[in-house]
Structures are given as C-alpha cells and as structure tokens.
Amino acid sequence: MTRMHWLGLVACAWAIGCEPVYPNVEDTGVADATVDDSSALADASTDATAQSDVGAPDAATDSVAQDTGPAIDVQGDATAVADTADAVGDTVDTLADTAPDAIADAADSLDAQDAIATADSSDGFAELPISPTNIDVIGVDWGCSAFNWQPGACVAGVETSPPLLPGIHVDLPNPITYADSPPSSGTHRPVWGKWGSYIFLPQQRWLHNIEHGAIAFLYNPCVPETTIAALKAIIKAQPADDTGPFRWVLTPYPGLKSTLALVSWGHLYEAECVQTDEIKAFISAHYRKAPEDEPYPGQYEELWLGDWP
To answer: Could you read off the pLDDT of 175-189 as tens digits, one per residue?
Structure first.
C-alpha cells in the first residue's frame, strides 16, 4: 500500500467518527509513516466535520445509517426467484394438462340438464339443477342410502296385476301420492317424459309413459352398474315396430323392495336379478297394451340422460 493510500484510509476513518486502524508499517512497505502525519490529517478532518455540521447533515453519517439494514444476498435472492418461477411454470403446465379433462368431465355429468334448481340427493348428483316447482323431485333421495344393501337370492321373478286405477291428470304444484309402490296405474302428470334413461324420473311422470304403451324399467338405487348395464342391453336388443323405436324409460326407484322391476299399464314384474328370458316374456306380453298407444316422446326432460332410441 502506498503512502497516499494509507493516509486516505486514516482520514476516512476519522471523518466518520470511528477509531482509525493503522496498518502495519512493515506490511505496507511505507517506512516514513509518522504519527505527525496522522495528527495533521485529524486536524483537517475535524475542520471538515465542523463545516459540514452547519446547515447540512453529515453525508458520511447518513451513509452509515443507511448501511445498518440487513445485508442483501443478491445471488441467493436471484436463485430463489428463479426457483419460484420454475415452480409456477410447473403448476401452469399441470393445469394446462388437467383442466381440459376436468371441464369435459363436468360438462358430461351435466349433459342434457337445463332446469333451474337443486335436487337433494346423496348419489353424487346433488348439484344437478331442477325446476324449483317440481315437487315430485325436490327432496327425493334417489341415491343409495343403504350402504349394506345386498340383493336377494337370484330366483324366479314375480309378476302381479294390481287393480286398475283411472289415469287422471293432475297439474303441478298439486301433490300426487300412491297406495302401491311402485304403482302400475293411476293419477299422473299431464306431460310425460322423453323415452330413454334418467338420473331420476318420478313415478308421477313415468306412469303417463306406460299409459302410452311403454315399459318402465326400475332398479334399486343401490344396484351395481353391471345390473343397469344388463337391463340396457336387453332394452337395446328390442326391435322397432311399425310405430317406431321401442318405447322405454329407465330410472332408479327409491324404496324399491326388489332389485329391479318392470312396469306396464296394470302389470308389475319384480326380481332380484336380471332374468333375461322373464324380462323378454314380460315385454312381449305387455308392451303397447295400454289405454293410449302413443309413440311420440314426451316433453318432460329434467334429469334426462338420453340413450334413445
């Protein structure tokens, strides 16, 4: 270190009010450094400090005050920012990959549903919209509420023919109740359902469908998907006739005592398993045997899933 460098360090230290640290003379290689030189520098520094105190703050003191905060690790902070940017990028990529599938699944679950209230159900469709005046659906739990449910023994099904009741039309919001469960005739709503399968179709609607010669396929809400698929396979195998495609509706029936049931106007078939031959025989005997042989689909479509023809 040269003599001028050494003197500069001493003056700077004295100006900011700290004890100067004198370098080792032998280390600096400056042989003629003396205390007299440092005293002269001290006097000069004192005069400069006094002048700076008049009318202006001490720039050196301000510099010290500003340096009292924590040290900034520029390289470390830059690395953290880069890591955060990478994490955000990964999240965006994940959302880009998964969002289209999630949106498509949500759209599929709401397909063909265009009413405007909410049904109360425990089967995963609790948020599906329905008409706020549809008292035949609101409050009905069409999901499986018996978690330990098991079908009965797979034996021959039972067919009955309850007494016929008049098919009187009753409008909403008037309630309709039935003595038989499920009913096979009686009072119902003026508008019948579209042909096909439903998340839930109330009996007040499908009774009108069977009055037009259709077969209603009912199942316990707790049945496995294999049972529903087997019923659909039988339905799809039915041929069209001179009036058009096979007329049918498929829906869960809360409180059904058996695993499944088929209903035509005035006739009921109940079984604990899919007995294909029995089901075909019931269809052959009772399809289109009703007071009104109407092939046209109805206009009621709340909770309708399609599948027709």
So the answer is: 999 999 999 999 999
Q: Give the three-class secondary structure for 69.
A: coil
Phi, psi torsion values for 82, nearest 5 degrees: -65, -40
| Entry pTM | 0.61
> What tens digit of pLDDT does each residue of 284-305 get?
999 999 999 999 999 999 999 9
Strands (E), the chain: 117-118, 129-130, 158-160, 196-198, 215-219, 248-252, 260-264, 267-271, 304-306
d(CA 278, CA 270) in angstroms, rounded, equals: 10
Which residues touch 202 (CB under 8 Å, ≥6 apart)?
136, 137, 140
Of 151, 286, 165, 278, the residue nearest 216 (C-alpha): 286
**Under a CB-based contact definition with an 8 Å cutoff, are residues 203 and 213 in contact?**
no
Burial of 119 (0-12, 13-18, 19+ CB in 10 A): buried
